[in-house]
Amino acid sequence: MIKQIPVLDCCTLSGYKEDELLVDHLADYLHKHSSLAFPHRHNFYHMVLFTSGGGAHAIDFTRFEVRPMHMYFMVPGQVHTWEFEGEVNGYVINFSREFFQSLLLRPDFLNGFSFLNGIAQDGAFQVPAHMEEEMTAFFERIYEQVNRVKPLQKDLVSVMLLYVFMRMEQQLSPAEKHKFPVYNYTLLRNFQKLIEQHFTNLRLPKDYADLLYITPNHLNALCKEYLGMQAGEVIRNRILLEAKRLLVSQDMTISEISDELSFNDNSYFTKFFKKLVGMTPEEFRKNKA
What we know:
InterPro entries: AraC-bd (IPR003313), Homeodomain-like_sf (IPR009057), HTH-like (IPR037923), HTH_AraC (IPR018060), Tscrpt_reg_AraC-type_HTH (IPR020449). GO terms for molecular function: DNA-binding transcription factor activity; sequence-specific DNA binding. This protein is of the alpha+beta class. The protein folds into two domains: 7-172, Jelly Rolls; 182-288, Arc Repressor Mutant, subunit A (Orthogonal Bundle). It has helices spanning 10-13, 26-32, 120-123, 132-147, 154-172, 174-177, 182-198, 205-212, 216-227, 231-247, 254-260, 266-277, 281-288; strands at 7-8, 21-25, 40-42, 45-59, 62-65, 70-74, 79-95, 124-126. Strand 4 (45-59) and strand 5 form a beta hairpin. The longest helix is centred in the middle third of the chain and has 19 residues, at 154-172. The chain starts with 6 loop residues before the first strand and ends with a helix.
């Protein structure tokens, strides 16, 4: 059985009896969980709003500076590390995949938010100045509702969280920021979703273009215009990300990782990795150890 890097379970962190939700002040959370192993993955959704402190954190090996009113969102499976400086505080909210199920009829509802697409750069951002007071106050209201109001009204908390998501989406949606035509934005999001499902076995833009019922040229043009790269590069970047995630585990050999990602042999995987990263998989692993 292939082992991977530590995976944190919501129920191991949460004091809430149904183990679907945790809301805490960040300073208290860090004190309670000072022994967290890094890097690690979550099997739940994770969001943090910083109100003070400094340092950095990394999502899927992309580094972000910590500053007041910096916010980030993470989806299950992403790799995370912290390197905080000074007195760090704010709010942390963890919730399970199932948390919204009793309220929402659409199981894929959360996938519609641009910051929950699993792309690190889209999940970390600075809260706009005109929203700072509103967001801080609303996070405190969620904290009060979860930790001090008895009995806990789960659906009310769900609605409060969805309000936060929708307010942030209004400010941050790539469709609005870049003025995507709705059809093109939908195509790109569907392309990204298909990559998540098939990146280990479908490597060519033509494969995805067929699934989207468009031509490879059309897909390449969309990616070039809105993402600044060809469709093939988008696919390769996702394969590379998974390779990095797996390399962080000292329990998987290079051969096992190569097989996991459907490469024909180790040498081809090594050439692929070194061409994109500038070092071999072994060197990357030692560098991150």
